């Protein structure tokens, strides 16, 4: 079995604070021709909220280009919560992504398992994967820190 290719965020991971604008936490660019048919693709992002303000909410998204693949829906973030998205899929003739798991980090809540958005991308061009965060209220106390953003490509033997 061939070894997987693991790509970590190519841009420095950022912190999102004191804004209501959807803001990139990090990006990964997969060079043209590196996504091939019959590859298993795994993407993951984790975001920590070291401090938060009152009942302000945070939403986290994972995208290919401008297409949203997976979302941690807006949730009432508390200090030191970690939310994450893990997406597993298959690059095939229809470039269908199979499912994702999203967790908002609140104690006692179950992870959501959802169908990912079908997306067709041009594997002959660079593919840009972005993780974003968006606060409901601009506050200096609302801090979202990207802990990691990774992509793994595994050829199917």
What's the layout of helices and strands?
Blueprint: E1 5-8, E2 15-17, E3 23-30, E4 39-49, E5 57-64, E6 67-76, E7 81-91, E8 99-103, E9 112-115, E10 127-135, E11 143-155
Antiparallel strand pairs: 1-11, 2-11, 3-10, 4-7, 4-11, 5-6, 5-10, 7-8, 8-9
Model description:
- The chain has 157 residues and is mainly β.
- It has one domain (5-155): Jelly Rolls, CATH 2.60.120.
- The chain has no helices and 11 strands.
- Strands 1, 2, 4, 7, 8, 9 and 11 form a 7-stranded antiparallel beta sheet that branches. A 4-stranded antiparallel beta sheet has the order 3-10-5-6, with no helix packed on it.
- The chain is elongated and about 50 Å long.
- The termini are close together.
Give the structure's gist in a few sentences.
By secondary structure, this protein is an all-beta fold. Helices cover 0% and strands 55% of the residues.
């Amino acid at each position: 079995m061939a070894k997987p290719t693991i790509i970590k965020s190519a841009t420095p991971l950022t912190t999102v604070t004191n804004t209501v604008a959807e803001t990139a936490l990090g990006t990964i660019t997969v060079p043209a021709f590196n996504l091939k048919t019959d590859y298993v693709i795994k993407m993951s992002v984790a975001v920590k909220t070291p401090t938060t303000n009152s009942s302000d909410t945070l939403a986290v998204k994972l995208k290919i280009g401008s297409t949203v693949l997976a979302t941690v829906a807006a949730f009432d973030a508390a200090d030191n919560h970690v939310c994450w998205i893990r997406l597993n899929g298959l690059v095939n003739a229809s470039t269908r992504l199979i499912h994702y798991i999203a967790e908002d980090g609140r104690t006692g809540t179950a992870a959501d398992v959802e169908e990912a958005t079908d997306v067709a991308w041009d594997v002959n061009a660079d593919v840009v994967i972005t993780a974003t965060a968006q606060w409901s209220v601009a506050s200096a106390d609302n801090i979202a820190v990207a802990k990691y953003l990774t992509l793994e490509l595994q050829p199917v033997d």
